[in-house]
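# step 3/5: fold
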Amino acid sequence: MSGGALEFLGVSRRYGPVTAVDDISFSVEPGTLTTILGPSGCGKTTTLRMIAGLELPSAGRILIGGEDVTRLSAAERNVSMVFQSYALFPHMSVLRNVAYGLLASGKSRGEADRLARTKLDLVGLSGLEDRLPSALSGGQQQRVAVARALVLEPTILLFDEPLSNLDARLRRKVRDDIRALQQDLALTVVYVTHDQSEALAVSDTVIVMNRGKIAQMGPPRAIYEQPADVFVADFMGEANLFEGELSRGEAGWTFSRNGASIALGDRQDLSERSATLAVRPYAIAMGTEGGGGLAGKVTRATYVGDWREFEIDTPWGSINAMSATDDFAIEDRIYLRFRKDRLMILNRS
């Protein structure tokens, strides 16, 4: 099974005076998994529903496999969707749930059952064909929903918040199962979630949306380590954000805020100006010796298992840091040093 490409060309969706999706363009390569990510109300679910044909654009064009499907209904597109609620028929067995779409499209009972059993075996549910959904775990129900979507041999497979009903441990396993299945079958998948770690873990490409527009699109690592603006940096994992001034001296670039400065080194991408500096909590080294570090006092120390989280009061304001080895106490006086290769100078969104 191989996927087909998807293209959005200047697509908008309006509901009266409200613009849910605002003139977005992107493409999804065949056989890849693209995640659409963003906060509630950003337009990600509306975008997914327009791919599925459950919503029609107010403007722009949608192409699937090179064919213009902008005005085609959901039934006229070769697209399958796995819903957040799974939407299984409670009175039907697992086999009947998976075979339902094939029977509705005119397949014989024998052929539908054969194909359904093949897909159930593919998702690891062979032997559970006669069970009702109520007799399955949450993860098993989710895999039934995936098998039901796969059995229709879709050009594009859509996931709408597929892991939101699962507990944390099961969520990771099912997430990895979906990614492995997608890669094994070379499926073209569009996956909507609000969970940043989930998006980073499963995606070839991440699309971050904000207020109906695409804030940034790219590989997961680039989105996390090279955010386009303040919104993306703050949304894609925790970040300390500071407004300050960039200046250049003999020793290289310096970032200053409230009379306290740190060295940025010799960088080619900067200019003297007001700027926003972002630094992740893991990119901060803490110690009791100074030597050019930013002085501070620990105001919160939280043990969370494999690492500890700290809140430090500094001349720059409150800073969040984490460490797997340091064990400071509240009121300890410490110094912070930032990893220069992890400091991000951002555009203001």
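# step 4/5: annotate
The chain has eight helices and 20 strands.
# step 5/5: archive (pending)
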